[in-house]
Known about the structure:
The complex is a heterodimer of chains A (119) and B (107).
Chain A: E1 3-7, E2 10-12, E3 18-25, E4 33-39, E5 46-51, E6 60-62, E7 70-75, E8 80-85, E9 94-101, E10 108-109, E11 113-117
Parallel strand pairs in A: 2-11
Antiparallel strand pairs in A: 1-3, 3-8, 4-5, 4-9, 5-6, 7-8, 9-10, 9-11
Chain B: E1 4-7, E2 10-13, E3 19-25, E4 33-38, E5 45-49, E6 53-54, E7 62-67, E8 70-75, E9 84-90, E10 97-98, E11 102-106
Parallel strand pairs in B: 2-11
Antiparallel strand pairs in B: 1-3, 3-8, 4-5, 4-9, 5-6, 7-8, 9-10, 9-11
Amino acid sequence: EVQLVESGxxxxxxxxxxxxxxxxxxxxxxxxxMSWVRQAPGKGLDxxxxxxxxxxxxxxxxADSVKDRFTISRDDSQSMVYLQMDNLKTEDTALYYxxxxxxxxxxxxxxxxxxxxxx
Amino acid sequence: DIQMTxxxxxxxxxxxxxxxxECRASEDIYSNLAWYQQxxxxxxxxxxxxxxxxxxGVPSRFSGSGSGTQYSLKINSLQSEDVASYFCQxxxxxxxxxxxxxxxxxx
Lengths: 119, 107
């Protein structure tokens, strides 16, 4: 059974930092791209960042809104994916989902972790 | 970026009714389209990929169709457990983008 368990969310002040973690199990983690998708309260879904597998040289993508502030990384030995979020803004407030891309779509989702940016 | 426009934004239907949700892409996405279901308080779940292929475990009352820029999700014989928000997503051109969602409620 595929499991994606996020952690690391919380309340942070503007310009602060948080690091989200996602522990993956139940599939061949090394073979697939991993993504972070966020959902602001009552809103739709937005791809924040993703990272490909080693086969694709761990290529990364960032949404324009988070470029130069967020960094996605992965540890294949631990089946973990991370999202380092710096210089957080109030508009980053959202539920952050960890997802796995078996196809080029989001096959499995974690339960999500809430990030609230507020003074 | 490819813009995905869903309609309607909200929908109210009766049990047993057939429901259709539309998704329009700003350019041809060659059937590289997925649909997700998000029940209240839950994470999204993959329903359909490649525009018309059902994901594992998805009931056959769900179906997807379309081509080019126009796609649709149909739910036959609506059940109470289908109350949810539905999102389309294109994966033809990076970055992958989502539609704004359709909230389905029971009448």
